[in-house]
Each structure stands twice: as C-alpha cells, then as structure tokens.
Amino acid sequence: VFILAIESSCDDTAAAILLNDKVLSNVVANQLIHNQYGGVVPELASRAHQQNIVPVIDAALRNANIQKEQLSAIAFTQGPGLMGSLLVGSSFAKSIALALQVPLIAVNHMQAHVLAHFIDEEGYEKPTFPFLALTISGGHTQIIKVDDYFDMTVIGETTDDAVGEAFDKSAKILGLPYPGGPLIDKYAQLGNPKAFAFTKPKVPGLDFSFSGLKTAILYFIQKKKLENPNFVDENLNDICASIQHTIIEILMDKLKLAVKETGIKQIAIGGGVSANSGIRNTLKETENKYGWKTFIPKFEYTTDNAAMIGIVGYQKFLSQKFETSSVVSKARIQL
Ligand code: ATP
Ligand code: FE
User: Fold this and answer.
1) Which pairs from 119-125 meet CB under 8 Å and 24+ separation?
2) At residue 300, does pLDDT exceed 90?
3) What is the predicted ipTM?
4) Roughly what angle, to the nearest 10 degrees, separates helices 181-188 and 163-173?
5) 180 has binding-site annotation
6) FRET pair for 306, CA 20 to 30 Å: which of 30, 45, 64, 132?
7) Which residues bind Fe cation per the record (predicted)?
8) pLDDT category, 323, cuts 50, 70, 90?
9) Radius of gyration in angstroms for the set of CA atoms belonging to the chain, rounded to a whole number
C-alpha cells in the first residue's frame, strides 16, 4: 500500500509517502518566520501551512516517484497541536481522500512519535513489545509504557515545562537565540558538566518538573553577573555543559525508576530533544552499565515529520481503522 501522510500540528509543514512500512519520501518545510518572535506564533503558523502544503505534498510525490492516483490512503495528524495548524492539514487530507476515493486515516501525533521506531530502515533494529518510550520535545516530556501499537500508557510526564522548553528558556537566559536547545548542546560539548551545580527538582513518582530549574539558572546567572558582567561570555561552555548535565540527570533518574517499576529494559526515545548528543551518549552507556537496550531513530524521524504519521497510517490501514470526512481535529488528545 502507498500512503500519503500529512503532518501540520505545529510550525512544520510535512508530507511523506510510504510503501508499506518503508519511507519513499519525507519532506519538511520549516517555518523560520517564528524565530524572530522567540516562539511559535499560531496565527502565522497556520498561514504558512496554507502556503507550504501544496508544494510540500507535490515534492513528496515527486521524490517518491509516484502519481497521486497510486495512493491507497491518506493519513493526517488529528492532534494534539495548534488548532489552526491542524485544520490546514486535516482539510487538505479530507479533500484529497474524497477526490481520489481512498480511505482517510486520523493519527495521534504523540502515538506517532512513539511508533516512528517501526519505520523500516536498513540497519535499524526495532523495539519489541513491551518497551518504554521517552518522548522529549518542545511540547512534551513523557515516559510511556508501550504494550502494543495502540496500547500505550503514560506512566510519567511533566507537571510544568517540557524538556525542550527547559533547554530553550535556559538558552534565552544566556542570551542565545531561539530555539536554543541545539546551541546549548553545541557549547556543552566543549565545557565541563560539573563546573556548576543546579539543584534538581523533587517530584514524586515518574513525573517531571522543569520550571524550577529555569528559575534556579536565572538567579544563578543574575548573581554571577553582579560579580562579573562578562560571566556568561567567559563561561558559556561550562554553563551550557552544567545545564545539560542537570537536565540529563533529571531524565535518567526517572528512567531508572521506570525500569525498576516496570521491569522493562528496552528504552526508545523520540521527539526533537532526542537529537541532543549528551542524551544520546548517556543512553548508549546504559547498555553496558545497566544492560538496557536503547533505540534512537534517525534524526529526521525524531523531530516533527510526516513519515511517523505514515507508519501509524500503515498500521491503521492494516486494521482498517478509517474515518469519514466528519472527523474533527483536536488540540488535545490522550494517547
Ligand atoms: P511537540 O512535538 O511536543 O509538539 P515541538 O514540535 O516543539 O513539540 P520538536 O520539534 O520535536 O518539538 O522539538 C523541538 C525542541 O527540541 C526545541 O525545544 C529544541 O530546542 C529542542 N532541540 C532540538 N535539538 C536539540 C539538541 N541538540 N539539544 C537539546 N534540545 C534540542
Ligand atoms: Fe512533535
């Protein structure tokens, strides 16, 4: 089966073509317009989706070298996300499905981040059920117990900011441009992770909190700047390494607890923050250190993309989970 998948939940317009569980094309148009505002502006996002969606889908078809008449189904992101952005993708998906007389498949974006691991890639070993998924992005921080494709339970999540926000807000305090996560990663690689200590939040169970860390960093920087106005410039690498080290420790503490509580030692990560080199290295080390098995997908499948929507679409196609065109977009949906 050939599936056209459309993703438009936030600020990236994406389309992919899958042949069964293989990705033939995966196109993303990033909306750089938001960078100058220091965050995603919903109204600008939906307008940019409208401009991007036709060229992005055309490119996906062209790169896959197929005609739209060959498509077996259209999959789209139903939610969660920004309503105006979701509506552009869903309206478009509905129209194509109707015009081509093929099934329409609604996909939960967060399930897609988890199921991205089942995209068939040469040399990529897929997790087996049950496994734990750590989804870390600009909007989410969740530990999910995955018992089957559509049998997932959130066993821990953030009570305030997401990990991506912790990175971006810390970067902002340091005067770095948005989104600052990748920059913290870059400078951290040159710094000493133990140079400065930030207190870790005390949150019961498997839940996370990141807003306190941001405040701790803000006060720390303010205080240091009083003593030395050039403190940030002179210590940027060490500050970034220390912030990243603290964030990784917070994540690892909870993962260790999740492994202990569930007895599951397969850990799959997803979401834009899983691009972080420190997180990747630390996870890899757990394989020798604790006997865990870790799964880290290709970068293009961890950030928002349509290939992950397509793999869920394929699974739903196999079990004939189709929608009518009255299906509605949802800003919030549970797993
Ligand atoms: P969601 O998927 O929950 O809707 P989103 O679309 O904002 O949220 P993603 O695109 O998956 O999230 O991830 C973006 C986030 O990832 C940003 O906060 C960005 O700073 C962070 N990020 C990207 N690369 C890195 C990196 N190397 N180190 C740390 N953070 C990173
Ligand atoms: Fe996402």
Assistant:
1) 119/21, 119/22, 119/23, 119/297, 119/301, 119/307, 119/308, 119/311, 120/20, 120/21, 120/22, 121/23, 121/297, 121/298, 124/297, 124/298, 125/295
2) yes
3) 0.98
4) 70
5) no
6) 132
7) 109, 113, 304
8) very high
9) 20
Nearest-atom index, ligand 1, CA of 163: 18
pLDDT band at 155 (very low <50, low <70, confident <90, very high): very high
Taking the centre of ligand 2 as the mean of its atom positions, its distance from the CA of residue 234, in whole angstroms, is 35
Distance 219 CA to ligand 2 centre (A): 31
Segment 68-83 shows an average pLDDT of 97
3-state DSSP helix/strand/coil % of the chain, to nearest 5: 50, 20, 30
Given pLDDT bands bounded at 50, 70 and 90, which one contains residue 269?
A: very high
Task: Give the β-pairing of 141-148 and 151-157.
Answer: antiparallel
Calculate mean pLDDT across residues 248-269: 98
Binding site membership of 276 for ligand 1 (Cβ less than 6 Å): yes
Tell me, using a 6 A CB cutoff, whether residue 270 lines ligand 1: no
Helix, strand or coil for residue 335?
A: coil
> Does 58 count as an annotated binding residue?
no
